[in-house]
UniProtKB/TrEMBL annotation:
Gene behind this protein: purC
PROSITE patterns linked to this entry: SAICAR_SYNTHETASE_2 (PS01058)
Cited SUPFAM superfamilies: SAICAR synthase-like
Organism: Pelagicoccus albus
Protein name per UniProt: Phosphoribosylaminoimidazole-succinocarboxamide synthase
Lineage: Bacteria, Pseudomonadati, Verrucomicrobiota, Opitutia, Puniceicoccales
Recorded family membership: Belongs to the SAICAR synthetase family.
Enzymatic reactions: 5-amino-1-(5-phospho-D-ribosyl)imidazole-4-carboxylate + L-aspartate + ATP = (2S)-2-[5-amino-1-(5-phospho-beta-D-ribosyl)imidazole-4-carboxamido]succinate + ADP + phosphate + 2 H(+)
């Protein structure tokens, strides 16, 4: 586990949008943020510093963002392995350093993982009402078909966390589905298992975040299965890009607290009158880049520092 100070010292001075070194493996895919390679018996996931907003990949990036998110996922995978097995392979460090001979920077932003079949749903757990959940609640007092109590306000804590799955879209936005619809997609047995695991992961993550003075409002988990049907936690886990984290000191029911994610960037882009949210995206001012980087590093340092 890398401390916040050590991670800060390892951040590059400029964003790594593409890999500096050649990886001697076939590239499977290139996403908005990640580059994915086939290692025969496993898969290499490398997080660049690219950043997207409103489904548009912006010029430049946030220096070290991919590195921070990868290390935070590593932290959570280690902390939650008693709840669910994850896709990190046991000899990952040896593969990154000795076999692939990656630089220190690339090692920190890479994960060597099992080859698994991803489930066709994403597993969202909400402990507070915000975002699309708040919009749905305002419309009919439900979220993904789950009836909620009357009288909730924006950012209200729910009586108990709820499991609100979505579809997993290869393009465009994921769409909310009812628990019954999700069970039809993956099968009732798998649905029951990932629901139970997701709720337990959320409870654990919330408790650890609370020690750091952070509220875990909601989060998204992804799972995959091996050839025997065993379920593994995959992708990224409990990062500020897959979760809504709030500073507990700033939390107030009835308003939306600032989150530890790229909200700084979205707010800046929303303030522009000459961008229609279509490619190409605008360049981000240095001060916005610095604030976003600082916010990512802050949540990492607080969460990792909360572990005894």
């Amino acid at each position: 586990m890398i401390s916040g100070e050590d991670l800060k010292a390892a951040l590059p001075s400029a964003p790594v949008r593409d890999l500096i070194e050649e990886i001697n493996a076939p590239k499977i895919a290139s996403g908005k943020v990640r580059e994915i390679y086939d290692l025969e018996d496993s898969v290499l996931l490398v997080a660049t510093d690219r950043i997207s907003a409103f489904d548009v990949v912006l010029p430049g990036g946030i220096p070290g963002r991919g590195l921070i998110l990868t290390q935070l996922s590593h932290f959570w995978f280690q902390q939650t392995k008693h709840i669910a097995p994850n896709h990190i392979i046991p000899n990952e460090a040896e593969i990154l350093k000795d076999e692939l001979k990656l630089s220190s920077d690339s090692q920190l932003r890479s994960m060597a993982v099992r080859k698994l079949k991803p489930l066709e749903i994403e597993c969202v757990v909400r402990g507070y009402i915000a975002g699309s959940g708040w919009a749905s609640y305002q419309a009919d007092k439900t979220v993904c078909g789950i009836k909620l109590p009357e009288g909730l306000q924006l950012a209200s804590k729910l009586p108990e966390p709820i499991f609100t799955p979505t579809t997993k879209a290869s393009e465009g936005h994921d769409m909310p589905v009812t628990p019954e619809e999700a069970a039809e997609i993956v099968g009732q047995d798998v649905f029951d298992k990932v629901k139970a695991i997701s709720l337990e992961l959320y409870a654990f993550g919330s408790q650890l975040a609370a020690k750091a003075g952070i509220i875990l409002a909601d989060t998204k988990f992804e799972f995959g299965t091996d050839e025997n049907g065993e379920i593994f936690l995959i992708d990224e886990v409990l990062t500020p890009d897959s979760s809504r984290y709030w500073d507990a000191a700033e939390y107030k029911v009835g308003s939306s607290p600032a989150s530890f994610d790229k909200q700084i960037i979205r707010d800046y882009l929303e303030s522009l009158s000459d961008w229609n949210k279509c490619p190409p995206g605008p360049e981000l001012p240095p001060e916005i880049v610095a604030k976003a980087q600082s916010r990512y590093l802050e949540v990492y340092s607080k969460l990792v520092g909360a572990v005894d």
